[in-house]
Amino acid sequence: MNTLAGTGALVRLILRRDRVLMPLWVVLMALVPMFLGSSIKQLYPTAAAVSEYARENLGNSTFIVLYGRIYDTSLGGVTFWRASSGMLIIGIISMLVVIRHTRVEEEAGRRELVGSAVVGRHAGLAAALVATIGANLVLAVLLALGLTGLGLPAGGSFAAGLAWAATGGIFAAVGALVAQLTEGAGAARGVGVTVAGAAFLLRAAGDVAGEGADPSWVSWLSPLGWMSQMRAFGQQRWWVLVPAVALIALLVAVAFALQARRDVGAGLLPPRLGPAEAAAGLRSPLALAWRLHRGGLIGWTAGFAVLGAVFGGVAKSAQDMLAGNQQLMEIFERMGGESALSDVVIAGTMGVSALIVSGYAVQATLRMRTEEAALRSEPVLVTRVGRISWALSHLVFAIFGPLVAMAAEGLVTGLVYGASVGDPGREIPRGLAAALVQLPAVWVLAGLTTALFGLRPRLAPAVGWAGLGVCLFLGLIGAAVQLSQAVLDVSPFTHIPKIPGGDLAVVPLVVLIVIAGALLALGLAAFRRRDVPVV
Amino acid sequence: MENILTASGLRKHFGSTRALDGLDLEVRRGEVHGFLGPNGAGKTTTIRILLGLLKADAGTVRLFDGDPWNDATTLHRRLAYVPGDVTLWPNLSGGEVIDLLGRLRGGLDDTRKNELLERFDLDPKKKGRAYSKGNRQKVGLVAALASNVELLLLDEPTSGLDPLMEEVFRQVVAEEQARDGRTVLLSSHILSEVEALCDRVSIVRDGRTVETGTLTELRHLTRTTITAELASPPDGLADLPGVHELQVDGTQVRFEVDTPELDAALRQLTAAGVRGLVSRPPTLEELFLRHYKTGEVKAEVAR
């Protein structure tokens, strides 16, 4: 039988199931560069002003870590550079979409039902890839049209669009591969996101470490590094699409080969047997929650320790760069001495980390909803465990998990930076403080999600993630698109004092903690009064 | 005998859907009570109200000597529950789930657990995601049956079990009752299972209890099927009240008769001279289908 039979029908099934979600992410992501471009244009109306801004930031280590290097100082080049974090986001979305339509389907047993019809062995995987890569190509066209609409050259606009689409395609192929490895979709997502995180870190490390105008070879280990080498609007390097397409073809071929060698529903990594009896400690809702959350907690903490090492190193190289620039040196000396620049870098990177760790807080909070919808809360709630202690067993991880991860990052940042400037005794507590001061804002998002879980459980996942999305938008893009302070103030992260370097304003922190506590209490009170399960 | 649980006039709406519409249920201490009804009749909703998971819109519920909604955790020490679709944590082994749930309930009989694992032929080392539907169901059953509780709430517990395991289930439930005098509320679709195990039965339809009583009592309310070989063709049988579906083929007759009219019908037969007689009480299936079908007729009329 043709192993691809039925692919067309399955592509239509995917488009039908994702008829809201897919257009949403394609259009929203395609608009991001256009919005950024138009706001840069408003801030710096002339070409000279834009290139002045770009030159000022050529050596800014925080920007190099977050967005990469600037290869062209025209409006187009600066827009492509400033929007580059969108490439990582589009990559992760594409990967999750492929896993959603392959491994999730298998795990739920729906793949089996579909597979019994006239559908080839590879049709499901092929359909997921066709739909996802197709969506990325549509995104490329929309993105390019948006940028040409700003008056930017068409060649550069399409180069930018294709760089984004190629990144989406590469990570879609990564998704196809990791979906073959494990029986559980959750584990596949974990492996995939780790790969994406590694790609980001390699790109960041390579770009920071580079000599002169070029990044070091380390950047070339990461697909995100290649795609920024497209250098859209500058000296365009169309040839970077060749290794991208080759990598996609290779990953897809490997995924297909792996799929041909395994049973439906099985993973390549064999499922392990568990103990026949529970350990003596597995006797409370908290012990159960620990089993369910420990993988996430360990993963996030390890990831954030690595981030801390990278950011600690960045703070040091920022200082080195400053040493070579007499003019900037004088500015920073006036601002508060030699350490001012590294302080700004540490405070800035901690702010970004707090946004990322909020994803963990929201995810851990929504675990309650996942358990409820899968009817796994029921067997626990019909024992002598009360609703509040069940909910708290999960919320412990939503509240203290981000604390542990941020503390790890702060410690390592302080240690790495402190060791490099020869004063770890001073820098470790400063790094730790910079990390921990962020937590009240993270807790507000956990509180919001808990309140939704109690009051409107069906909406909790969508609105909880949307809340984080709004904070990400306001935090990363809001200032660049010149939103008013009143709008920026909506995000709890806006109110976090800039530590180290700035003043430790206690009042906003206390207010945020009170808001988070009130939202948590509201959610728990509502959960105690409502029907369970709401499915 | 003392009631272990009493529900009367239970009502529950989910949005515009009416799940329960004045349901009554009484379960006595020490009995196995069958809870019968088609899909969507409100069985699971009732059980969830008894567990204090859902709050009834109207009506009263007493479980042991408390209110399931307000005293949920105290009452839960005394009962165990098996849902119709047991879902397990993918990364916990079956054995871990059984021990955990037992401990959360307040105690597990280890000897009993090992015996049940053996009889249900369940491998406790597999992870939750690796179990088939039937094996997940066994995990739930072992966890509940090995707990030291007074009341078992079983919501279609044997769905997905093979006939062999179904038989083991029947033996185990019969033992439970005989040995410890445990009370069981068994919601089920499988009428032979209910017929074999249950002392009393409640039949629900559209969120309301339509019949309740022992099987004998229920049979009394319905028709007996009579087949007779007579000496001469029968006379006047068709005119008797309570006789239905009469078929006469020479001296062979076959009909159904309402149980209160049985005496009169038999008198008519003996008048014609009885050569052979088979009388068959209604099966539970017929009882059930009778209620189920009247529902269909109503629906057709409404259309």
From TrEMBL, chain A:
Transmembrane segments: 20-40, 80-102, 123-146, 158-179, 186-206, 238-258, 297-315, 344-362, 395-419, 431-455, 462-484, 504-527
Keywords: Membrane, Transmembrane, Transmembrane helix
Source organism, top-level taxon: Bacteria
Keyword Transmembrane helix belongs to the record: yes
Protein name as catalogued: Exporter of polyketide antibiotics
Biological source species: Planotetraspora kaengkrachanensis
Automatic annotation (TrEMBL), chain B:
UniProtKB keywords: Antibiotic resistance, ATP-binding, Nucleotide-binding, Transport
Transmembrane stretches, start-end: none
A GO-annotated cellular component: plasma membrane
Localisation: Cell membrane
A GO MF label: ATP hydrolysis activity
Ranges where the ABC transporter domain occurs: 5-231
SMART domains: AAA
GO biological process terms held by the UniProt record: response to antibiotic
A UniProt-annotated Pfam family: ABC_tran
The keyword Nucleotide-binding is assigned to this record: yes
Membrane disposition: Peripheral membrane protein
Similarity-based family: Belongs to the ABC transporter superfamily.
Name used for this protein in its record: Tetronasin ABC transporter ATP-binding protein
Organism: Planotetraspora kaengkrachanensis
Organism lineage: Bacteria, Bacillati, Actinomycetota, Actinomycetes, Streptosporangiales
